[in-house]
Design brief:
The protein is α/β, with parallel strands linked by helices. It has two domains: about 1-30 and about 125-218, P-loop containing nucleotide triphosphate hydrolases (Rossmann fold, 3-Layer(aba) Sandwich), CATH 3.40.50; about 35-120, 3-Layer(aba) Sandwich (Rossmann fold). Helices cover about 50% and strands about 15% of the residues. It is built from nine helices and eight strands. The protein has helices spanning about 15-25, 35-45, 55-60, 90-100, 105-120, 130-135, 150-160, 170-185, 205-215, and strands at about 5-10, 30, 65-70, 75-80, 80-85, 125, 140-145, 195-200. Strands 2-6-1-7-8 form a five-stranded parallel beta sheet, with helices on both faces. The protein has a three-stranded antiparallel beta sheet with strand order 3-4-5. Strand 3 (about 65-70) and strand 4 (about 75-80) form a beta hairpin. It starts with a strand and ends with a helix.
């Protein structure tokens, strides 16, 4: 059995950044769900299936096996045993991923692949419903959050650093609206699992958050 760590929380809480750093320190596999979606998209493209051919997409899910491995510290993605990492950022793959990711059966297939990976490997996953839906039996569950203002400030600083013009109050408003949607959506709403440890990073550095989560792990 793999050792599983689930990190949930609202948008802008730094989940992916923290999860990747914890994975690096502990030697876990960081489950990059976006890369897994792209792996499925490559499978569909290789079969000559178009995104609008939904029945064919659903059927093709049956013989797709996407796995994430780390080789020399670098993430590699395999589709049915073949390394497809170099193809993940192709434009056609991105377009197919965007169109197919909304199909419920594709999401269900990805869920099955994630759970299988978690069953056999030591993994860390981040998202909105990892501890409540994807890995309800995770060994460690963390609900990582920060105030809306703090998350807005972080996003604002990122955009300013890229030379983009933005408004802090507007960013904060967008974050609050997204929180509202995520927490009240019908399917897998964002919420803290009963057995999750609450970590509020509003006044913490990235290093401090990583240390807290690492210490929760075996």
């Amino acid at each position: 059995m793999g050792y599983n760590v689930a990190i949930d929380g609202p948008a802008g809480a730094g989940k992916s950044t923290i999860a990747k750093l914890v994975a690096e320190e502990k030697g876990y596999i960081y489950v990059d769900t976006g890369a897994m979606y792209r792996g499925l998209a490559i499978h569909f493209l290789d079969k000559g299936i178009k995104a609008e051919e939904i029945e064919k997409v659903i059927e093709a899910c049956k013989d797709a096996d996407v796995k994430i491995r780390y080789e020399d510290g670098v993430q590699q993605v395999y589709l049915n045993g073949t390394n497809i990492t170099g193809r993940l950022r192709d434009e056609a793959v991105g377009q197919m991923t965007s169109k197919c990711s909304v199909i419920p059966e594709v999401r269900e297939k990805l869920l099955d692949l994630q759970r299988e990976l978690a069953r056999t490997q030591d993994v860390i996953m981040d998202g909105r419903d990892i501890g409540t839906c994807v890995l309800p039996g995770a060994d460690v569950k963390v609900y990582l959050t920060a105030s809306a203002r703090t998350r807005a400030r972080r996003r604002y600083d990122e955009l300013i650093a890229k030379g983009e013009d933005c408004d802090l109050n507007e960013i904060e408003k967008d974050i609050e609206e997204r929180d509202e949607r995520d927490m009240n959506r019908q399917t897998a709403p964002l919420k803290q699992a009963e057995d999750a440890v609450l970590v509020d990073s509003s006044d913490m550095s990235i290093e401090e958050v990583v240390r807290v989560i690492v210490e929760l792990c075996k």
